[in-house]
Amino acid sequence: MPKLTHFDDAGRAAMVDVSAKDETERVAVARGRVVMAPETLALIQSGSAAKGDVLGVARLAGIMAAKRTSDLIPLCHPLMLSKVTVDLTPALPDAVEIEALVKLKGRTGVEMEALTAVTVAALTVYDMVKAVDRGMRIEGVRLVHKSGGKSGTYEAE
């Protein structure tokens, strides 16, 4: 199998050719959080944010982003994802925890899709309540699990 690289023979950026790789079930889980004032979290939980259902809209935005990752990240392969879940959980007193799970059977992993889902969901939370809390922070976006493919399983500590 040829070496997987993002450079062609002339040293230019190129999409990796994964056609010789075996199709396997690929799963990735990413997590992150949005830290905010406790009053902002209470507003989100009560459903009284001026822009509506913050968690519901952010969940949908994360799912949609996972499906469009190749449009956002250069050199990512367009993938036919078989499953995307994005869970947003209030974490008292001052955060929303976000977890995305992305799955497919294919020749390339879905880490970027899971990370994109979490990031866009977090940005959506920020956007929907920034008028009341500009000091929010998006933190800790990272891959916590990856399985499938030649490199095997990864579990974050």
From TrEMBL:
One of its GO terms (molecular function) is cyclic pyranopterin monophosphate synthase activity. The keyword Lyase applies. Residues 15-149 form the Molybdopterin cofactor biosynthesis C (MoaC) domain. Substrate binds at residues 75-77, 112-113. It catalyses: (8S)-3',8-cyclo-7,8-dihydroguanosine 5'-triphosphate = cyclic pyranopterin phosphate + diphosphate. Its EC number is 4.6.1.17. The active site is at residue 127. It holds the Pfam family MoaC. Keywords: Lyase, Molybdenum cofactor biosynthesis. Belongs to the MoaC family. Catalyzes the conversion of (8S)-3',8-cyclo-7,8-dihydroguanosine 5'-triphosphate to cyclic pyranopterin monophosphate (cPMP). This is Cyclic pyranopterin monophosphate synthase. It comes from Siccirubricoccus soli. The gene is moaC.
